[in-house]
Amino acid sequence: MAGDGGDWPSVADLSTGSAIAGYRIEAVLGHGSMGTVYSALDTGLDRRVALKVLTPELYRDERFRERFLRESKLAASLEHPHIVPIYAAGEADGSLYLAMRYIEGRDLSALLKSLGRLDPERALAIVRQIASALDVAHARGLVHRDVKPANILVTRHGGEGEDYAYLCDFGLAKHTSTVSSLTGSRAIVGTVDYLAPEQIEGKPVDGRVDVYALGCVLYESLTGVPPFERGNELAALLAHVNDPVPSLSERRAELPEALDTVVATALAKDRDQRYGTGHELVAAAEAALRGDAPKAVQPPRPATAALRTFVFADVRGYTSFTREHGDEAGAALARDFAAIVEALAPKHAGTLQELRGDEALVVFDSARQALRFCVELQQEVAAKELPRPVGIGLDAGEAVPVEEGFRGGALNRAARLCALAKAGEVLASDSVREVAGPTEGVAYGFRRVERLKGFEKPVGVVEVHPAEHVQKRELARSAKAKLGGSRPKHRLLIAALIALVAVAVAVPVALLSGGGESAAASVLKQDSIGLVDAKTLKPVGTMDELGAPVASWQGPQGRIWTLDASAGSMAVIDPTSRKVLGRFALKIDPGSPAWGAGSFWMGDYSDAAVVRYDPQYGTIVKAIHLPTHGLDYADTTTGLAFGAGSLWAAYGKFPFRLARIDPGTNRVVKTIDLPDAQG
To answer: Which is the catalytic residue, given 42, 107, 135, 146?
Structure first.
């Protein structure tokens, strides 16, 4: 096979005695559309191998070269007695190569040419071994896509009379093509005589394309010819898609008619009507040879919505990076990103649904697995030092399987969250957090509410971090948002509420120590409240043993109240002795506090509710649920203030709402909607 690329090496140049990548060529074993297979000696380990050297055309295809090297490693991880082990794969001297165990014997294609056809028992014995290999590969998410007699090696072990079959070319088949699909320019993966209709039509494939091809192999082993042998490739393709399966018993009268049913089922045009596994095909064929009626294939249930978690990941600034550094650098970035995603998705039981340049969609049955995948993906992107960061969004919900993937709101929300995520950020919807719950290796961070394009109702969003992520920064951000709002209008509105308070409250100057940049902060302890002189701004002391305080207030009687958001509790401190007088659990997601009517009040940041506490004993006096009718998003109470003899609560979004609570009855007596304020 001569090369056509100038100085590019050709597989025909590898003569006996020449060397490549530490392998010395001994002889040519065979030629194929992808390259040449040699018998070679591994000079390092002094063992004989089968060395496949690919054509120069494939080496020039940079995308193919990167994918070949990556997927060969995945194929090498397959361990099965009927799969040819892969020793090594790589590139050397301008060529791609794959080193495999050398198998004494010949392939099934050569055996059929020699014998014409096989006895039913012998044919089924070979097919049985290959079926077991395929079922293991399919369980790992690998589809061979080019099962054919030429890829089935047949030998004898220990001089025994029984055939021992190996399936080879895993990791290569999905790259090869001989013709274009009937539906466009998309390349077909596989060999014409064994292609399933969905491969020909360019549709998504699964393990049932291998079951179809194995049915073709069984037919050819019994008759000596492929089931849809035609005069040219196009005619063969059309026959796979349109023609009925020819009868086995018409070609070999001694074969039972029940075997016709088995082969027709394996070669069904509709993959849902085929056997789902190689084992099912073999079991049906064995029953037919015994004279038993093979079991009918159970039709799959109609596609119904199922709870899944969708993850979108996107390389940030990919277009500008490519424009600045060139197409080759952009392609390298996309390949590195793809390699990370393709390695991590199966590790976390995810299905890689789409991978297009700088974007990836992975689908999970488990929300927890999805969260772990996202965390590890960001860690790998950082570890591999990709020149551009990645943003990730995920949502959990019902989605209906369709021909090209899935359809449902969760899929679209995940895409919108991905677009919203900042560089290096993982954004999960509230649905993901609710479904997953506490997840090992994962920490939930700052939570907020966002409007997503295309969705009428707002969505609760939480940042996702590794479990070892330091939480203080997240707690401080949360407290800041809860107490002051994340929007200017919100902060002004809270300020207006506080201005309503009838009795002025003096708040001492206090500093939360935890990494601030001021000179005062630098001398204070972490996890403490530092007291600062209001005139000189110099530290005058600290109050310790407060957990992880994120906010403090001076309440009635001059006492200082601190919020430990990590524990969801309040501590009451005597500022003179600087001792903790008491603690009590809030039993809610703490928001903004207020004092009045002899009670301590706290808004629930995760619900439209206010809780009234007895400040002496820390017990709940009353949980007051706020009216939510007419609010698009009501699951947050963002501010409280006591004034004019009433408690005022700010809550909800779209619109923003104020509620006036009578402390005498603990009931809401008035609500005011502010449509122009978004909270």
So the answer is: 146
